[in-house]
Amino acid sequence: MTLSQFEIQDIDQTVLLWLDHLRIKTLIAMQQQLEVDTKHDVRDLVTNVDKDNERMINAKIRAFDSEASIVSEEGFGDQQRDMNGNVWFVDPIDGTMNFVKERANFAIMIALYVDNKPVLGWILDVVNNVVYHGGPQLGVFANHLRLDNPVNDTLSDGIVLLSGARLLYGMFGYDKIAKSALGYRVIGAAGPSFIRVILGQAVGYSSKMMPWDFAAGQVLAKTLGLSVSDIDGQPLNMLSSNIVLVATNRAHRDILTLHQS
């Protein structure tokens, strides 16, 4: 199914309204006592806000797009086996550790793919009240400001963002990548890291991610002419974890070369 420009604009504006409400709801929850639990280990946190946000987003998607499937982090979505039709990706709080401990550097992310093609993505920077949104037919916006494509810098020209745990243990050539960049940073969340790359504040970002971590970022990054792949340069599998690499075209080539050397 192909959506018209009008339909895509309508979906974009609808989701922006959801996110405006979600932002207020999340900020209020931050002023209250959070209920914090762990999932796979003590560093894999989940809060009542993650769960409440996901329930709310998924309910709105099902009311708005009843035939769609939902891939979401906290277990309230579908057990999706293919990318046929409308597939929504939901990360209700991206960077939960940052949300709990820093109260900053976290995001809410939603994406829509149609028959495995990226259509729209939204990354809400809750604290700074900016939604990065758009897609191939609309362009990419920070709230109402249209963004230009980032400068196509090399790895040595800029800052690279990396997964801290994998950098610490020298996995995937991250140590060589960090040494070859002008500088490196560890943000600890996918959404804020994607934001820095699409704004041209970093030339690349790589980490192990689940589909809800990278779905929105991939839509926005590709729309802005950035390269998105796994660490071996292959297309991302939208229904499994990937070692994701998003970068300027030149930095992408530099990083792949280092990883493969």
From TrEMBL:
<feature type="binding site">
    <location>
        <position position="94"/>
    </location>
    <ligand>
        <name>Mg(2+) 1</name>
    </ligand>
</feature>
<dbReference type="GO" id="GO:0008934">
    <property type="term" value="F:inositol monophosphate 1-phosphatase activity"/>
</dbReference>
<keyword id="KW-0479">Metal-binding</keyword>
<keyword id="KW-0378">Hydrolase</keyword>
<dbReference type="InterPro" id="IPR000760">
    <property type="entry name" value="Inositol_monophosphatase-like"/>
</dbReference>
<dbReference type="Pfam" id="PF00459">
    <property type="entry name" value="Inositol_P"/>
</dbReference>
<dbReference type="GO" id="GO:0046872">
    <property type="term" value="F:metal ion binding"/>
</dbReference>
<keyword id="KW-0460">Magnesium</keyword>
<dbReference type="InterPro" id="IPR020583">
    <property type="entry name" value="Inositol_monoP_metal-BS"/>
</dbReference>
<feature type="binding site">
    <location>
        <position position="91"/>
    </location>
    <ligand>
        <name>Mg(2+) 1</name>
    </ligand>
</feature>
<feature type="binding site">
    <location>
        <position position="93"/>
    </location>
    <ligand>
        <name>Mg(2+) 2</name>
    </ligand>
</feature>
<dbReference type="GO" id="GO:0006020">
    <property type="term" value="P:inositol metabolic process"/>
</dbReference>
<dbReference type="GO" id="GO:0007165">
    <property type="term" value="P:signal transduction"/>
</dbReference>
<feature type="binding site">
    <location>
        <position position="73"/>
    </location>
    <ligand>
        <name>Mg(2+) 1</name>
    </ligand>
</feature>
<feature type="binding site">
    <location>
        <position position="213"/>
    </location>
    <ligand>
        <name>Mg(2+) 1</name>
    </ligand>
</feature>
<protein>
    <submittedName>
        <fullName>Myo-inositol-1(Or 4)-monophosphatase</fullName>
    </submittedName>
</protein>
